[in-house]
Amino acid sequence: MSWINLLIAGFFEVFWATTLKLSHGFTKLGFSIATLIGLALSFYFLAKATKTMPISLSYPIWTGIGAVGSILVGVFLFKDNLSITTWIFVIMLIVGIIGIKVTSGH
């Protein structure tokens, strides 16, 4: 169950980062509220995951999910343009997240 909580936390990490962008510096009330709710839920599920997972595993995976997810949202929703070099580093980040999971023994 801790892995499910961690994945949910990562989803809400991407959610709040996206709604933060859409809030335009907290000037749009609906998106500002959504940002705070997403932030709270992300931390809540991360806290649940860290009850049974080491922080050395859960935190980097949580931030990695948030980073990769936010990159994908930026590219597909906000039409961010990334260079080939940047994509290589995104792939390295994904490999690193998977590597942490696979070698953790959890």
Would you kindly provide a brief summary of this structure?
The protein is an all-alpha fold and 106 residues long. The chain has helices at 2-22, 29-50, 55-76, 84-104.
Report on the architecture of this protein.
The chain is 81% helix and 0% strand. It contains four helices and no strands. The model has no long low-confidence stretch (mean pLDDT 96). The chain has one domain (2-104). Helix 1 runs antiparallel to helix 2 (29-50), helix 1 (2-22) packs parallel to helix 3 (55-76) and helix 3 (55-76) packs antiparallel against helix 4 (84-104).
Question: How much β-strand is present in the residues?
Answer: under 5%
Outline: flat
Helix content: over 70%
Structural class: mainly alpha
Question: Which stretches are low in confidence, meaning pLDDT under 50 for 5 or more residues running?
Answer: none
- Rg for CA atoms: 15 Å
Number of strands: 0
In total, the number of domains comes to: 1
Mean pLDDT: 96
Largest sheet: none
Tally of DSSP helical segments: 4
What is the H/E string? HHHH
Q: What is the CA-CA span between the terminal residues?
A: 12 Å
Transmembrane segments: 29-47, 59-78, 84-103
Main location: membrane
Pfam family, one: Multi_Drug_Res
Subcellular location: Cell membrane
